[in-house]
């Protein structure tokens, strides 16, 4: 048997790792950003698909829908401008799904456990991962806004408005990131997570104010749209885009103009984020605890 | 147990270790792992581990054997802080698993049974991520990564994504990521399962090398040959409890002598008769006799010296011996003797009678 020398033992003490919280966040942020760039699925689904929607919808429905938009928001709003904020929210929704898929993959390929046996702070691990996803969503919304402007959309509030729309997209994404992570922990199965999250995406988008003003849609859709988070995300983004009060599901007049939409919508989204976030934190800490089940 | 009780239990060792941190190195030279009275019961009532006591010394190459489902992985997960013990005291590198899990995580390497690497990252990126996760100082990371890539022979594919790797390459990469922080203690949970012999041999060399450098290794394996080649000490777990503990040579000795395999020309009836003769054979004290597919197998201290006498006795009884072989017991025999004893209650009773 090899007997370690006295100096050998001292070395071990010195070699003991010294992780910091921000260091752990950064390590995980880097890993997940690298993985996002590597994974064609992430880029195609969360960017190409909304882009195709943007082009197809404006080209195919632009002329027809233009009338409906004028009916809802008054003349002068062109359909591309109307649609771009909705696509920005669609990007956030599609990207948020990949958060849960990433977690399920980690559980399946053993990286989840590997991270648990490492000395990294577990909260920092999840913050780092979520930051990578949120950062990606902001970039993707920026790209969509740029393309929208190229296609003729107009951001009334300019660059500040563009940043505002990115912020709304990020705030909106929290509840769905949390939701897809909850699905991931509960199913521990990649396909169920993808199907579960994707199945929801289209109904949520279509049964909201995303593609047409609610006034021209059937009553039952108007009712559903009230409880649909997408409506609040799209309305807030659209209010910034047009600098107008566009919200029809909650009537607020306490502020002025666009703020009558933005303030209540942001409040609703923040609340949703907190509720779903708490659920995800609970399930994630249960999944990573060493308590016997 | 009441909550207060368990908190009180947990507090004492922590204070102890803080108070004696200066002398910890002296303590650690003695034991890397110290388990007493470990019990683990899963939520559904399954008692995976019941009353395990085990000590592993610093620098040892320790093998942990047992049939599937005996509790090997459960014990290793408790030691790696992935599972909290239901009862008992467990210390790893001098730290308590309940109160100081993070200090344990900093000072161990853990290679899970399932290969755990990120397939979307390259070999180098996987190791680098591990360096960062274990807080390897920034200045050392390049050197450490290169050193480990060299150690597991993956420099040539350092920039290739690991999803393209063969099973053996993935395992080697996984092993490398468990060693980035030069842990004094490494857990290897069936590291070579499913590998071809060449890949297995390479991993063996590599484990021996890090053990020679002073690293304590805690290995579980299904391959007894592997345990025999690598381990200085073995423990066998069965139904959640340790049933044997010692060096491979000690354990083989406990089997009760050498093994004489005899092949017989006739059918099962002849085998039964031969077995009876062997059991009643005077020269073999406390012999274990088993009927095999082709004949009988006798384990006895005097198997080498008096084996020919038994062959003569068999011939005198009119049985045709077509072949025989005397050999030292292998770990396979040890394993069979230990685990067979309780798994097969009928045979077990017979063995118990003959070997007091």
Automatic annotation (TrEMBL), chain A:
One GO MF term: ABC-type transporter activity
Compartments (UniProt record): Membrane
InterPro entries, per database record: ABC2_TM, ABC2_TM_bact-type, ABC_2_transport, Nod_factor_ABC_transporter
Parts of the chain that traverse the membrane: 41-62, 82-104, 134-153, 159-183, 195-214, 262-284
GO CC aspect terms: ATP-binding cassette (ABC) transporter complex
Membrane topology field: Multi-pass membrane protein
Keywords on record: Membrane, Transmembrane, Transmembrane helix
ABC transmembrane type-2 domain ranges (all copies): 41-287
Source organism, top-level taxon: Archaea
Protein name, as recorded: ABC transporter permease
UniProtKB/TrEMBL annotation, chain B:
Keyword presence, Transport: yes
Annotated keywords: ATP-binding, Nucleotide-binding, Transport
Gene Ontology molecular-function annotations: ATP binding; ATP hydrolysis activity
Region annotation Disordered: where it falls in the sequence: 1-29
SUPFAM superfamilies: P-loop containing nucleoside triphosphate hydrolases
UniProt feature coiled coil, ranges: none
Domain ABC transporter: 33-264
Pfam families for the chain: ABC_tran (PF00005), DrrA1-3_C (PF13732)
BP term (GO), one: daunorubicin transport
InterPro entries in UniProt: AAA+_ATPase, ABC_transporter-like_ATP-bd, DrrA, DrrA1/2-like_C, P-loop_NTPase
PANTHER family, per the entry: LINEARMYCIN RESISTANCE ATP-BINDING PROTEIN LNRL
Family of the protein in this entry: Belongs to the ABC transporter superfamily. Drug exporter-1 (DrugE1) (TC 3.A.1.105) family.
Name of the protein: ABC transporter ATP-binding protein
